Amino acid sequence: MTAFRILREIYKHEYAILRAHSGQCQRQYLMTLSRWAEQLGTDPALEHLEPLIVQTYIAKRRAERSAATARKDRNQISALWTYCAKRRYVEQFPTLAQIKAPGRIPRGYTAADVSALLREALRKRPPIRGTSVPAHFFLATLIRCCWETA
Fold it and tell me: What does the pLDDT look like over 64-79, one tens digit per residue?
């Protein structure tokens, strides 16, 4: 077994270093572990890496927050749990239910955005290299084609 039994310590002293997590990523993981600690009433430790215990936390998070937040928490705990299982700190690997969450809604160009692109394209006067086609004609046509055909 390891010298640390608390998941926060395993994360900070091993997992985050080995995975080269950025400061923002580390804050996200530690926030997930803090939220889990609030529910447990103690810091999550290796003995808390049981499917029922983790799934209870994830279900509570899903009830309080969005599906995307619950999925993030599930994925982070699962990744740390998998690391602990590979290092043989725990005997079993995670077996948690998947969480379906919608992805980000794509943001398209507005009419004002396309209008600004067209104005800029129409300022380009020299011909396109190797052709006699003026750049403003080609670029404006290309932008209009993209806008109309989505």
Answer: 999 999 999 999 999 9
